[in-house]
Amino acid sequence: MDLPWVPSVELGEVLAELPARQRKAVLRVVQAEADCVALTRLLKTPYSCQWCGLVVGQSGTPRDERKGMLEAHESECERRGQAWRFVCSLSIYYRKWVHDAAFVSALAMARREITEQAMASAVVGLQAGTQDAVAAVRRIIRVGESEANQLRAAFGLLDRAGVETAQKATTTVAGELEYVDVTEGELAAIEEALRGESGAE
Ligand SMILES: [Zn+2]
Prior knowledge:
Strand order of the largest sheet: 1-2
Shape: globular
Bound molecules: zinc ion
Order of helices and strands: HHEHEHHHHEEH
Distance between the termini: 17 Å
Radius of gyration: 20 Å
Number of strands: 4
Largest sheet: 2 strands, parallel
């Protein structure tokens, strides 16, 4: 993402409680998501390129063939000269970290913050009459933010941009995120904005 992301003091305190590897991982994972870099590139597998992190071949490919593809790829890639930094191995991430409550909640908090900061910057862009705002909304949607976060982001944008929105019914999901019901008119406004952006590409 083109905006520098600064974790809040609150998030900093949560991160400080994590082991160093997980702390770095949270920051790198949310940044990668914002940049639309696949998470698999951050997780080391036996078929990951040591120079760029790319996972070579498909899982259905025979093992020897896949090893050969990896060697060929790595010799092409070697000119980068600097080893890729993985946050951890794929198996540690999926067998341990995603079941670790402290890690998961820190990651969720970091995602909320980076989304809010992207939106704040999007609103500034929209007020300045540029298409950057809508591009930012699209990015949030593309990086797989939760539905509740996407809606909050979209409504924050519409509200601050002065788009008329109907009375919204607000409920709380899992005692955490605020979820806002969408009306037809609001959906149309969001879709219209996204169409305008894709036409400008
Ligand atoms: Zn590579």
